[in-house]
Amino acid sequence: ANRKLFLLPGDGIGPEAMSEVRKLIAFMNAEESAGFETDEGLVGGSAYDAHGAAISDADMEKAMAADAVLFGAVGGPKWDGVPYEVRPEAGLLRLRKDMELFANLRPAICYPALAASSSLKPEVVEGLDILIVRELTGGVYFGEPKEIIDLGNGQKRGIDTQVYDTYEIERISGVAFELARTRRNEVCSMEKRNVMKSGVLWNEVVTATHKAKYSDVKLSHMLADAGGMQLVRWPKQFDVIVTDNLFGDMLSDVAAMLTGSLGMLPSASLGAPDPKTGSRKALYEPVHGSAPDIAGQGIANPIAMIASFAMCLRYSFNMVAEADRLEAAISSVLDSGLRTGDIMSEGCTRVSTSEMGDAVVKAYAG
Ligand code: NAI
Ligand code: MG
């Protein structure tokens, strides 16, 4: 097989975390003939320093041509003053836009070894494994009109508009139903149909999509505010949650914190399948940012980046066995008591970024 990976390590701890994924890629190529072909580019502040843009057109083309993009993190105080259009985040936004990554997958998994250090009671989070599917390219973050108007009487008006079309709701709910089939076969759709027209349409289209193509999956609906409450009260009632851009942004951050540190959280963003080949554009990235406060010290937790690579194996290459093994390797390394600083607790062994990465490769190798 030849599997084209495009690596965009970015800024701050992005490159440090990406180095640990490179070790896994090298191992899988050498020992398992995985056939990964990697190329690498610049994004964020490092791209701005080199080309004056947050991602160059050449790197953008490589991202578009790859089977999957692995993205580290962008940003940092060094670039706080750069013009808005070329700020580091603009690189990620361009990737999402040009690759049409409309489905953002945010798993919230509680590793057994970390259940005791959750901010919730261990029994609430132990064994937790939920997946939030957030619509990423529509809704109130993009709808027009979007402006601030001067009302002329000392008052201004800020306007954002929530817009969803049928096709956008169909495709995001399709992704959620398909993923549910590979899991516990349950989807909970969240909106605010009691107060929003887009919520009424969301509910209708999810229901119709379910009836037409996915009636084997168990579907439920919840108002998004109640959903937030239920996520904190008893998160294990959920398997897959599908929701819009705004609610998904908030609910996925809430779900994330059920399970511990930012340094543990992976994500995937998927595009539409190519009508000819069936393959999807996809970008995998940790949820955390560039962590300037710890960058360059070799102490960042690489697990979020490594778990993002596990999602890449699962969703872009259908390497399900390898993804399962990699996730089990992460879990067993945590069981053995190794911890980076962000997840350190009493009685555990503190390790560096690179030691954590080595331990995961070793556990994966078995
Ligand atoms: P952050 O996620 O970079 O850091 C928040 C806190 O969590 C820091 O104390 C950091 O040390 C810690 N942390 C994060 N990841 C960690 C890891 N893997 N291991 C250990 N500790 C970790 O968020 P913050 O501080 O708000 O933003 C820093 C920069 O990152 C900003 O320039 C921001 O714009 C950018 N950012 C970029 C994102 C991206 O590339 N997708 C996402 C979020 C922020
Ligand atoms: Mg957010």
Question: Can you give me a brief rundown of this structure?
Answer:
By secondary structure, this protein is an alpha/beta fold. It has helices at residues 14-32, 45-51, 57-65, 89-98, 122-125, 166-181, 197-213, 224-233, 245-258, 303-315, 320-335, 353-365, and strands spanning 3-10, 36-40, 68-73, 103-109, 129-135, 147-150, 156-159, 186-191, 218-223, 240-243, 266-273, 280-286, 338-339, 349-350.
Describe this structure in words.
Its cofactor is Mg(2+); Mn(2+). It catalyses: (2R,3S)-3-isopropylmalate + NAD(+) = 4-methyl-2-oxopentanoate + CO2 + NADH. This protein has 366 residues and is α/β, with parallel strands linked by helices. The protein has twelve helices and 14 strands. The protein has helices spanning 14-32, 45-51, 57-65, 89-98, 122-125, 166-181, 197-213, 224-233, 245-258, 303-315, 320-335, 353-365, and strands spanning 3-10, 36-40, 68-73, 103-109, 129-135, 147-150, 156-159, 186-191, 218-223, 240-243, 266-273, 280-286, 338-339, 349-350. The strands form three sheets. Strands 2-1-3-12-11-4-5-10-8-9 form a ten-stranded mixed sheet, with helices on both faces. A two-stranded antiparallel sheet has the order 6-7. A hairpin with a 5-residue loop joins strand 6 and strand 7. Bound molecules: 1,4-dihydronicotinamide adenine dinucleotide (NAI) and magnesium ion. 1,4-dihydronicotinamide adenine dinucleotide is lined by residues 13, 73-76, 92, 262-263, 285, 288-294, 300-301, 304, 340, 342.
